[in-house]
């Protein structure tokens, strides 16, 4: 079986798995998938169908390569530009780790077509309460 057929089989198997979002953004009030919510299931499915996923980080790009372990010359690459993080109270290595963790999560959600609610779209219709103000309040 070729790498494309194996990947679609893996995606369907994951789609039929009950995943639970454990991440919670308390400030914005939404839940999200963390790597631990789906990566163990993906690894098990990849083992079943004969795929391997390898993440590589370069200065300007991160790549998740999906490899057909029966025919290692068959690969699919998923690419994402590198970014940066500036977490408060963290040093450079911790910020690098944060970037790598986020990019791994985004690459895997891309590879496996994991769907999450778009936070921007979800909050677009939210009602915002504004207190009564007068022009002189801004002067």
How many helices? The count is: 4
Task: Tell me the domain tally.
Answer: 1
Tell me, rounded to a whole number, the average pLDDT. Answer: 85
How many β strands by DSSP? 5
Helix content bin: 25-40%
Please mark out the parts with pLDDT under 50 across 5 or more consecutive residues, or reply none. Answer: 125-139
Distance between the termini: 70 Å
**Topology order in helix (H) and strand (E) letters:** HEEHEEEHH
Oligomer: single chain
Shape by Cα distribution: flat
Strand count, sense and barrel status of the largest sheet are: 3 strands, antiparallel
Task: Walk me through what this model shows.
The chain has 139 residues and is α+β, with helices and mostly antiparallel strands. The protein has one domain. Helices cover 38% and strands 20% of the residues. It is built from four helices and five strands, in the order αββαβββαα. Strands 3-4-5 form a three-stranded antiparallel β-sheet. Strand 1 and strand 2 form a beta hairpin. Helix 1 crosses helix 2. It is flat and about 50 Å long. The N and C termini lie far apart (70 Å).
Task: Tag the structure with descriptive keywords.
139 residues; disordered C terminus; 38% helix; two-stranded antiparallel ribbon; three-stranded antiparallel β-sheet; alpha+beta; 5 strands
